[in-house]
Amino acid sequence: xxxxxxxxxxxxxxxxxxxxxxxxxxxxxxxxxxxxxxxxxxxxxxxxxxxxxxxxxxxxxxxxxxxxxxxxxxxxxxxxxxxxxxxxxxxxxxxxxxxxxxxxxxxxxxxxxxxxxxxxxxxxxxxxxxxxxxxxxxxxxxxxxxxxxxxxxxxxxxxxxxxxxxxxxxxxxxxxxxxxxxxxxxxxxxxxxxxxxxxxxxxxxxxxxxxxxxxxxxxxxxxxxxxxxxxxxxxxxxxxxxxxxxxxxxxxxxxxxxxxxxxxxxxxxxxxxxxxxxxxx
Length: 281
Hints:
alpha/beta, six-stranded mixed beta sheet, four-stranded mixed beta sheet, about 15% strand
C-alpha cells in the first residue's frame, strides 16, 4: 500500500490487514481532499487481494472523522432537481464504494463522529466505539438539509425506521453505549479494550480466504433488499463464487477423509478447528 498518494490519512499494511489512520489536522474534516483520498484508496483496495481487512481509526484522540466540510456544502444547488435528473453526490458515491469493497471494513471510533463522519462509519461493515470518548450525531436537519452521505438510507437499515428518525430529527449527540443499544455500532468497549478487541477480530478475519470474505459480504448486503426466495438464490450464487475460487472443496474432502466431523473433540472446538484447516490448500 502506497502512503505517498494520500494527504488525509496514513496506511500501515501487515498480515493481511490495512490500518488506515485519519490524520488531517485540525479536526479530520470530511472535505474534498478526504473524499478524493478515499476514492483512490478504494481503487487501490479493489485490486489488492492480499489485504483482507481494513481498519479505519484516527490519530486525533478526540475526533474520528468530523462532519462534511461546509465549504463544498454551501455550493449545493438551491433549485429543486426533478427525480429523474438526480445524480449521486460525490460523498454518496465514494462511501458506497467503500461499502462495496471486497475486504471486511471496521470503523474503530474513539472520538467524535458526527454528520459525514458518522455516515462514513455507517458505510463500514462493522463499527466499534470507545466509552467516554465516542460521540455520534446527525445534525443536518438543523442546518436545513438531511444526512446525504448515506446516513438517511443506511441508518434505518441498522436501527429500524422509528429509531432512525429519532436520531436524525432529534439531532442530538449519543454516546457509545447508546449507539450499541440503538444498533448503529456492533459493540461499545472501554478505551483500554477497544484496541485489543478490534485487532484480535481483524487478525482472525484475515486468516480466511479473501474470496470467501467477499462472498459473505455480498450475500449479507444483498439479503437486506430482497424477498427471502431471492435472498436464498443470492446465497447459492455467492456459494459457487466462493467454491470456484477458494480451497473449500479440498477442505471438505480433508474433513471427510479424516472423519473430522465425527470427532467429538472437534465438535467441542470448532472455533480452533476452523483456524487449523487454513493449512489445507
